Amino acid sequence: MIVFMTALLVVLYQLTCHRNQRAKDDQIQICNLCRDNHKTQLWLSFLILSFLTTCTSAVTEIEDLLTCLDELNSTLQKSDAMLYTATISDVERCKDKVLNCYMEELIMVLSEEQMDHKRANCFFHFNATLIPEVGCPQCEMYSLQNISTFLRILTNTLQRINST
């Protein structure tokens, strides 16, 4: 990783230097503009690192949500609500919209059952990160299932997303 970041910084130095001041051959010479403009380089490096960590953070959020569901499972199972439940094929077409539907249903159960559990904030946080796709069916179009079936399908869906 350090070798990659060093190479990345050299490339960034080269791109921000004026053509006449760029390194020649195998020498690494940092132009005066680059020396004077450390903030730009720092922000460019930060931007690149942000893109590199985006993929791993999505997996971590799913893992955190699975942990949260596991911890709240016994509390959620007390509900007798019937919830709109999407299928795996729906997830393949409209992943964020389906996950948004699941989170809204869970948030509704928490509200109706007046569950005040600190760990439940994970549902709100995860839901806020989703950007539902356009053209996907509304949550109410999915079949109604009891809480046990809903949680089982949601857990399987999240595990499947996490494994890909």
UniProtKB/TrEMBL annotation:
<dbReference type="GO" id="GO:0042119">
    <property type="term" value="P:neutrophil activation"/>
</dbReference>
<dbReference type="GO" id="GO:0042102">
    <property type="term" value="P:positive regulation of T cell proliferation"/>
</dbReference>
<dbReference type="GO" id="GO:0006955">
    <property type="term" value="P:immune response"/>
</dbReference>
<dbReference type="InterPro" id="IPR003443">
    <property type="entry name" value="IL-15/IL-21_fam"/>
</dbReference>
<keyword id="KW-0964">Secreted</keyword>
<dbReference type="InterPro" id="IPR009079">
    <property type="entry name" value="4_helix_cytokine-like_core"/>
</dbReference>
<keyword id="KW-1015">Disulfide bond</keyword>
<dbReference type="Pfam" id="PF02372">
    <property type="entry name" value="IL15"/>
</dbReference>
<keyword id="KW-0732">Signal</keyword>
<dbReference type="InterPro" id="IPR020439">
    <property type="entry name" value="IL-15"/>
</dbReference>
<dbReference type="GO" id="GO:0005615">
    <property type="term" value="C:extracellular space"/>
</dbReference>
<dbReference type="GO" id="GO:0050778">
    <property type="term" value="P:positive regulation of immune response"/>
</dbReference>
<dbReference type="GO" id="GO:0001819">
    <property type="term" value="P:positive regulation of cytokine production"/>
</dbReference>
<dbReference type="GO" id="GO:0005126">
    <property type="term" value="F:cytokine receptor binding"/>
</dbReference>
<keyword id="KW-0202">Cytokine</keyword>
<dbReference type="GO" id="GO:0005125">
    <property type="term" value="F:cytokine activity"/>
</dbReference>
<protein>
    <recommendedName>
        <fullName>Interleukin</fullName>
    </recommendedName>
</protein>
<comment type="similarity">
    <text>Belongs to the IL-15/IL-21 family.</text>
</comment>
<feature type="signal peptide">
    <location>
        <begin position="1"/>
        <end position="17"/>
    </location>
</feature>
